[in-house]
Amino acid sequence: MTSLSQTQEMFRRAEAVCFDVDSTVIKEEGIDELAKFCGVGDAVTEMTRNAMGGSVTFKTALSERLSIIRCSREQVNKLITDHPPQLTAGIKELVDRLHERNVKVFLISGGFRCIVEHVAAQLDIPLDHVYANRLKFYFNGEYAGFDDSQPTAESGGKGRVISMLKEQYGFKSVVMIGDGATDLEACPPASAFIGFGGNVIRPQVKERSLWFVTSFGELLKELEKI
Question: What CA–CA distance (Å, rounded) separates 102 from 179?
């Protein structure tokens, strides 16, 4: 059984660190912000809550919410321009510090690639280190669905991405950090999981995390121990 001190040591020695995005790297849930922007906020927020609680499969929840939002390419672009995602305090410093130590940093999100790429650019994370869902649009810019072949469109998809990364890069130690049940479920194959409650605390995640933090400052402090 892994202990708190072992989890902390794994984080200090990790070859790769994977972050969830919504309510972890950024303060909000991207799909809820998009829904609000498109005027269907309340209906979608309720569905997000159900999805987080695990009462429906992730792909079903995603598909149902998007069929209500039906955002155009123009609306998505306008959301990013008018309401850019807000980075959580301390994330930029943490990612910079990990990069300085030659740790590979990845973003693995059940959210949308067009929004997550914007976040990655702010954090100097290469776009080939981003795994997220792709929205599809018709040539006139209208909503045409989402790419359901992406691993992140499925329940258990984050774990599949981590397995793929271990195979592709030969990583022995990969740490997953996030606020939600889908992040917790990615360990294993992740070597360790750190629960993050800086934006929202999900009781089932807090209870099941060996190490649960409420600020990225706690993780920065841990890195100073080496």
Answer: 25
Predicted structure pTM score: 0.89
Which tens digit of pLDDT belongs to each residue from 74-131? 988 999 888 888 899 999 999 999 999 989 999 999 888 988 998 999 999 999 999 9
Determine the Cα–Cα distance for residues 192 and 190; give it in Å rounded to an integer.
5
Could you give the CA distance from residue 167 to residue 169 in angstroms, rounded to a whole number? 6
Question: Would residue 183 show up in a list of annotated catalytic residues for this protein?
Answer: no
Amino acid identity at 1 = M
Antiparallel, parallel or unpaired: β 16-19 and 104-112: parallel
Q: Which is catalytic among the residues 20, 32, 179, 183?
A: 20
Q: Report how far residue 162's alpha carbon sits from residue 93's, in angstroms, rounded to the nearest whole number.
A: 23
User: Which residues is 104 bridged to in the sheet?
Assistant: 16
Whether 20 is a known active-site residue: answer: yes
Determine which one of 22, 32, 179, 183 is catalytic.
22
